[in-house]
What we know:
The complex is a heterodimer.
Chain A: H1 10-13, H2 23-29, H3 35-45, H4 51-61, H5 65-78, H6 81-89, H7 96-106, H8 110-120, H9 126-136, H10 144-154, H11 158-171, H12 177-186, H13 191-208
Helix pairs in contact in A: 2-3, 3-5, 4-5, 4-6, 5-6, 5-7, 7-9, 9-11, 10-11, 10-12, 11-13, 12-13
Chain B: E1 3-7, H1 11-23, E2 27-31, H2 34-43, E3 48-52, H3 60-69, E4 78-82, H4 87-96, E5 100-103, H5 108-118
Parallel strand pairs in B: 1-2, 1-3, 3-4, 4-5
Helix pairs in contact in B: 2-3, 3-4
Amino acid sequence: MAFIKKQQSSTETEDERQAPRDFEGLCEELNHADSQVRRWAVRDLVEMPNASSVLVDRLEHENNVSVRTGILNALAQLRDTVSLNGLIECLRSEDAALRNESIEILKELPDEVGAILENLLKDSDSDVRIFAVNILESLRHENVEKWLISVIEKDSHVNVCSTALDLLSEVGSEQAIPAIKKLKVRFPDEPYVCFSADLALKRIEEGSQ
Amino acid sequence: MKHILVIDDAATVRLYHRNILETAGYSVDEAINGIEALEKALVTSYDLYIVDVNMPKLDGYGFLKEFRRQEDVLQSPAIMVTTEAGNQDKILGYVSGANLYMTKPTKPNQLLSYVRLLLGEVA
Lengths: 209, 123
């Protein structure tokens, strides 16, 4: 059975802007019943100062996937503190799709995320710490390996360490070896940690030859 | 030989589960996200699915919901395997169509006992 791709309707490609494009008008349209109107409002709000907070507020209630994606992309474009905090807050959402979308967006913001990553890796919620490690996966930042080593040395949660170890297996160098060996000692009764650590050590040692 | 699809974006997790399952005599395929899993599930009849939650493009909940909507496809059982241990996460897993829910990190004996249970291999 093949997937049936939804046909793109003409309205999705046409400029449907109707109301005045001032800040107040756009904020009103952001709550419009028609998702197409909301999508255009998001696009136009990106150009306006102070748009971040209204977009973050809307994100909490937005159920339409494409409008939500538009808001997340707009926040990535704005890149101010409010936008970044809004994207980070998505990591705490019960909605897995929203969490994963925000992780993908945050991976593309190495400078902004780099500045707050150490705090995220110390978050009291282990799930948020796991998502922070997920962000490191393709974050182009010079400290990625250092952060991952720190996680497997210090974090007490086995799944946070396992997630960091998975990534070290791909990006780790010889300097990660002592921390990986110590992790096996910290979690001797966890078969996955031992398996993953052995794999990481093998890959790093093979890569250095 | 029973055929199992392991769905997880982490290569190490896929390899770990593959090793456990193949050692126990099962045949294993892999998918790196929910979209790839759906594509495979629609052309191959797997006997069981082992599904991670957090994956890019389509997460485990999304995969199961979409998969369970496919009336023409054999509706095999699924084990959701995730780092999230909260009750709400488990409920979401079952609502989405999971038959069992396991919290990572999995242990080989536990995983195999769940697999055998869902495949009707328990004596």
